[in-house]
Design a protein that fits this description.
The protein is α/β, with parallel strands linked by helices. It is built from 11 helices and 15 strands.
Length: 360
């Protein structure tokens, strides 16, 4: 039988505050649990409004709870507290490791989604227009602040020059702007500190030998001084051994690698500690299925990028996390399985039975 886990500690990131809170709150409630929601200190307003809506809908007092604050003072206690039965965390790998270690003290259930360095593999026979368009969307949507961003372009060598040249041309035309600018196609980064981190990441990549094809700094356009904007950036001639290929920038930065054959493409794509998501572009259906089957990633899209389906499980292999969100398996994270055996015809077992004299 299934029963609720109990008290769920839900820790959400800043990049999609309403979406991420919904992914955790909804299954926690559906499974019959209570929860304590801890949003990022950078984006608390959405969760405050969500809790007000839940109250207006009649959620009983004490079933849903909200704590605000930084990770060290508000998030860590959730992971450590003995009365919290499950902690579900979405965020960076370093913090995720700390959450897992803290939860280990009470051996509570843990679900972690820790981001990725996601490969976007383009074969020479791919639908070129669709692959180009989606390669841009994969990494520059939301200025790259997406856990599943296709930040590693792995393109077949025979089409590399033409494909990357067109990507550079299009990336240079992306319009940056604020939320009230109707022309804007991409926005600002979350903070100055994060922009500085992205800039340092790009500089390190260039220092390793990557070739800067576009971007690589803040825009100088009038009206963008107030935000923490960073231009869409493409680093070409990359190798898997480079830090800029292995590390998650969480910004609008695309690295480019090439391959000559299917096996090499798979090897390059799997050469990472992460395993959240990836994509394969080819018109060969058999090859698409082979590659998808050999990728060590929790989600593989074929001839598409970034479709999220609520009925399909979401989560990663390797250090991209443990557990799943969405789908039946995601709901299953919030229940415990109990085996109950009832003997409907009880009788003495006779195992230690003796005769009246005490003998056998």
């Amino acid at each position: 039988m299934q029963e609720p886990v109990g008290v769920c500690g839900l820790i959400t990131p800043w990049n999609y505050p309403l979406l991420q809170a919904s992914w955790k709150v909804a299954p926690a409630l559906a499974a019959g649990n209570t929860f304590v929601l801890k949003p990022s200190e950078l984006t608390p307003s959405t969760s405050i409004i969500l809790m007000r809506i839940l109250k207006e809908c009649g959620l009983p007092a004490g079933v849903g709870n909200l704590v605000l604050g930084a990770g060290a003072t508000a998030g860590a206690p959730l992971a450590e507290h003995p009365d919290v039965d499950l902690v579900s965390f979405t965020g960076g790998l370093v913090t995720g490791r700390r959450v897992m270690a803290a939860a280990a003290a009470t051996v509570k259930k843990v679900a972690l989604e820790l981001g990725g360095k996601n490969p976007n593999i383009v074969f020479a026979d791919a639908d070129r227009a669709a692959a180009l368009d989606n390669a841009l969307t994969a990494v520059f949507l939301h200025s790259g602040q997406v856990c599943s961003a296709g930040a590693r372009l792995i393109v077949e060598e025979s089409i590399r020059d033409e494909f990357v040249d067109e990507l550079v041309r299009r990336a240079n035309r992306i319009v940056l702007g604020g939320p009230f600018d109707a022309r804007a196609q991409a926005g600002t980064l979350i903070s100055r500190a994060h922009r500085d981190k992205v800039a340092a990441y790009v500089e390190a990549g260039i220092g390793e030998g990557a070739v800067l094809r576009c971007g690589g700094g803040a825009p100088d356009a009038l009206g963008l001084e107030a935000g923490w904007f960073y231009r869409p950036t493409i680093l070409d001639r990359c190798q898997s051994s480079m830090g800029c290929v292995q590390d998650e920038s969480f910004g609008p930065v695309l690295t480019v690698e090439t391959f000559r054959g299917e096996d090499e493409a798979v090897a390059i794509a799997n050469d990472t500690i992460y395993g959240l998501a990836g994509a394969v572009w080819t018109t060969d259906a058999s090859r698409a299925q082979r590659v998808a089957g050999n990728l060590r990633h929790g989600t593989v899209w074929i001839n598409d990028y970034h479709p999220y389906l609520p009925q399909a499980e979401w989560g990663g292999f390797k250090q991209s996390g443990v557990g799943r969100e969405l789908g039946p398996t995601g709901l299953g994270e919030y229940v415990e399985l109990k085996h109950v055996y009832q003997n409907v015809n009880p009788a003495p077992s006779g195992w230690f039975a003796t005769d009246e004299t005490g003998g056998d």
